[in-house]
Amino acid sequence: MKAQWFSSVDQIGEAKWQETIGDTRYPFAQFAFHQALEQSKSIGDGTGWYPEYLLVMDDDDSPLAIAPTYLKTHSQGEFVFDWSWADAYQRYGMRYFPKRIWAIPFSPVTGLRIFSHLDPKGDDVQFSHLYPALAELMTQANQERDFSSWHLLFTKPEHADLFASNKDLVQRISCQFHWFNRGYKDMEDYLSHFSSRKRKTARKEREKVAQAGIQLTRTLGRDLTPADIDFFYLCYQSTYAKRGQQGYLTREFFGQLAQDMGEQILLVRAFRGDEAIAASWCFFDDHSLYGRYWGCMEEVDCLHFEACYYQGIEFCLEKGLQHFDPGTQGEHKIARGFEPVFSHSIHYIAHEGFRDAIGNFCEEEAQAVREYHQDTQEMLPFKQET
């Protein structure tokens, strides 16, 4: 087995990239997704995100797998928060940045972090040995350049388990809320599994939006016009502007994705008459819907729940999708039937003293996360089994 680092997807080339990843439909593994990040300048010079893709090849140079990694000069856009770790390094006069993350930029979605035609769904037990093998390559590369750390973010739980015996690595868990299709026929069937009170609440939320004169539409990326994308981008930036920030991704990124990945993009829009007032951008594959970006030009009671959750659930039921990952955080998702799940990250900290301190912190944090996970299970809206 051989491995080589590349600083751009174009250095690998679309043909070799697609040959490497094979039939996987995971949207965040696609060449077009990563190329759009680079060509739109959402990552690269001046952004604090510098791609280094690890291509793994067989001895005959046939491609086996790709791991997406990025050198980072800050901790923004990752959603596994390590700012306190960076602050501690600074207080002791040590350098935390640059660091390496092994992740999907700006996307807190659990899934594949090794893309391969040999394991397109990421569930081949024999193939999984590549995770610790590539982790060792990352450690060696970090040591050669004296980087403080590398971080594998939002990996699948079975892949996180592969690192359990490695005492040089720190495991961290957090809690997200995901929806699962339990064989529901349609939205009415789904809501029928709620307790009476919770079902009435959900229906009232949807009715509030309709009574406000709001209509919702769902459009695939292939059918979006430049004006549609312009409006969505205005919504996207408005979400950040409310916090005094600017969105990480450029207008060109979304336009390029609609053109190159239109079959895997869903845009939900809210209209009052002919005027669009809100939008939610999602990705999907054959199994899952991934809710990513949202914004509105006008605040309407319960519109966020409708555009970001109920519309997504309806889309999953129509398309036969089994899972909906709506993004990170948010207890408000529980009342709409999103169940608590653990998300997993793996961290290599080069400095032994900091590694021990961070490991102790993550152990204490994990206990609180497990208790929170248990508490939120009891808040779900579903009828109690008898």
**Derived structural class:** alpha+beta
Chain-averaged pLDDT: 96
Q: How many helix segments?
A: 12
H/E element order: EHHHEEHEHEHEHHEHHEEEHEEH
Per DSSP E runs of 2 or more residues, the count of β-strands stands at 12
* Rg from alpha-carbon coordinates: 21 Å
* Residues in β-strands, percent: 15-25%
Main beta-sheet strand count, sense and barrel state: 12 strands, mixed
What low-confidence regions span 5 or more consecutive residues with pLDDT below 50?
A: none
Share in helix = 25-40%
Spatial strand arrangement across the major sheet: 1-2-3-4-5-12-6-11-10-9-8-7
Q: Please state the overall shape, judged from the principal axes of the Cα atoms.
A: globular
End-to-end CA span: 54 Å
InterPro entries: Acyl_CoA_acyltransferase (IPR016181), FemAB-like (IPR007434)
Protein name: GNAT family N-acetyltransferase
Salient structural properties:
12 strands; twelve-stranded mixed beta sheet; 12 helices; globular; 386 residues; alpha+beta
Account of the protein in words:
With 386 residues, this protein is α+β, with helices and mostly antiparallel strands. The chain is 36% helix and 25% strand. The chain has a 12-stranded mixed beta sheet, sandwiched between helices. A hairpin with a 2-residue loop joins strand 8 (265-272) and strand 9. The chain starts with a strand and ends in a 9-residue tail after the last helix.
Task: Describe the secondary-structure layout.
Blueprint (H helix, E strand, L loop, with lengths): L1 E5 L2 H4 L1 H8 L9 H9 L9 E9 L5 E10 L10 H9 L7 E4 L27 H16 L3 E7 L1 H4 L8 E12 L6 H5 L4 H16 L2 E7 L5 H16 L9 H10 L4 E8 L2 E10 L3 E9 L6 H17 L3 E3 L13 E11 L2 H26 L9
Parallel strand pairs: 4-5, 10-11
Antiparallel strand pairs: 1-2, 2-3, 3-4, 5-12, 6-11, 6-12, 7-8, 8-9, 9-10
Helix pairs in contact: 3-10, 8-11, 9-10
